[in-house]
Design a protein that fits this description.
This protein has 452 residues and is α/β, with parallel strands linked by helices. It has 21 helices and 12 strands. The radius of gyration is 22 Å and the shape is globular.
């Protein structure tokens, strides 16, 4: 009977590391409150998420399922290159599958006997929380008659900029009529005098009729049909922008930084077991923990940490420029250099063109890895600076750790993020304390889900 009183929520992220991580953190927070969560990944990412067992062991009410993305098995699925292919396939082929999935979970019906037995232990699905660029899930939830909440993975500032793009087009500020990227933009209320053209989301460099531009315009408009909005931010960080967003949504839950809120709600003694640690650092990529041992050998605040996230790609020229700069600085550095970081085939012969001085300089003072446990790295006392792409997850993690950030925004919302944030570590810590706004807002979200 107690189990039936708890709600059952579906979480459905866009199939990318930076989207899955905050959604999965929210899943853990909801499960910690006793809520049943079905976490729906595309089939590939479902298998890449090797921490599923550890997560389910830590949170018995967390249930993982997969759904086809509609792409051929041999498709590379590189988001930076094939974004339009992925989005088109999700909207045309995954959407009807999602509708069927929602019906089965709402009615606790499953053709597979084992799955049916498991479903019988769950209450009917009562709510969908979907990604901000997966709005076909809103259509599916509406068709099935299930309330839907949207979780964009961007900052409030960035989300507001995307929302204002139709106004910028109407006011003839988009597309840009010249190449003066420092010209002030006046069509984003609440950010007058702050935003330059170069600070707008990267899609603003596209023609207004470009398919990606049109996709974002439609997605941002569709979000307003959701019953509520969850933002991975906190009130003191973006209060002025939140006031502009408020009239568009019946409810907005600001519950960030999500990763810090999880640590706040799940006490240190609960995170001591190996399963709990794996749950807290769930990733689609294999983390190289040798970097933590290397950091232990470095002086306090001496290391610059470099990561451009899971999607940003570099040209060979850009990579070598960064590398030369890091080696020439004489400063110890830890660099996340993904195996897929270079465009097209530029990486095929990379090993043959690395200058000797870079190899020697890296051996003396650098450490290069494919992926790291970033939250732990930023919290390490040896890290004194963070060279970042300004993705919102990374930005919040940097703010929380109180590490100075050097921003190199490249795409999507990163330009806005790099312009709008500063040193807010103390405010972030206050927000996730028991008397803080994010802590309170999470409690309200949990209560509202129970009341559905």
């Amino acid at each position: 009977m107690e189990m039936e009183r708890q709600p059952h929520v579906l979480l459905f992220p866009f199939p990318a590391q930076g989207h899955i991580k905050p959604m999965l953190t929210l899943a853990q927070l909801l499960c910690h409150a006793g809520i049943h969560v079905t976490f729906l990944n595309t089939e590939l990412n479902h298998h890449l998420l090797t921490q599923r067992q550890a997560l389910s062991a830590r949170f018995p009410t967390l249930h993982f399922h997969s759904i086809s993305d509609g792409l051929p098995s041999d498709h590379p699925r590189t988001i930076a290159v094939y974004y339009q292919d992925i989005v088109a396939s999700l909207r045309s082929k995954t959407a009807p599958l999602l509708c069927q999935f929602l019906i089965s979970k709402k009615n606790n019906v499953d053709k597979d006997s084992a799955a049916a037995a498991a479903a019988a232990q769950l209450p009917p699905l009562g709510c969908v929380i979907t990604d901000g660029i997966m709005c076909f899930a809103i259509d599916a939830a509406e068709e099935v008659g299930i309330p839907v909440i949207v979780l964009p993975i961007t900052s409030a500032c960035s989300f507001w900029c995307y929302s204002c793009i139709p106004n910028l087009i109407q006011e003839a500020q988009l597309p840009f009529e010249d190449e003066d990227m420092d010209r002030i933009v006046s069509g984003v209320p609440g950010m007058e005098g702050l935003l330059r053209r170069r600070d707008l989301p990267s899609i603003c460099r596209m023609p207004t009729d470009h398919p990606i531009m049109q996709f974002y315009i439609k997605e941002t408009k569709a979000i307003t049909r959701a019953s509520a909005l969850i933002l991975n931010t906190f009130d003191d960080l973006e209060s002025s922008i939140l006031s502009h967003l408020a009239p568009r949504f019946s409810k907005i839950y600001t519950i960030g930084p999500l990763h810090a809120l999880l640590k706040s709600r799940i006490k240190d003694d609960d995170l001591s077991s190996s399963s709990s640690s794996a749950a807290a650092t769930a990733s689609l990529r294999q983390e190289d923990r040798r970097c933590m041992t290397w950091l232990d050998t470095q002086r306090l605040g001496s290391v610059i940490f470099i990561s451009f996230g899971s999607l940003v790609k570099l040209t060979r020229v850009e990579l070598l420029e960064f590398w030369h700069g890091l080696v020439s600085s004489g400063t110890p550095f830890l660099w996340v250099l993904r195996s897929d970081v270079l465009w097209s085939d530029e990486g095929e012969h990379m090993g043959q063109v690395i200058p000797t001085e870079l190899e020697m300089g890296t051996k003396e003072r650098g450490f290069i890895v494919d992926w790291v446990p970033q939250e732990e790295v930023l919290a390490h006392e040896a890290v004194g600076g963070f060279l970042t792409h300004s993705g919102w997850n990374s930005t919040l993690e940097g703010i929380w750790a109180g590490v100075s950030m050097l921003c190199w925004p490249k795409l999507a919302d990163q330009q806005v993020n790099s312009r709008c944030v500063g040193r807010f570590a103390k405010l972030a810590r206050n927000s996730v304390s028991e008397s803080g706004s994010s802590y309170h807002n999470l409690q309200q979200l949990i209560q509202d889900l129970r009341n559905l």
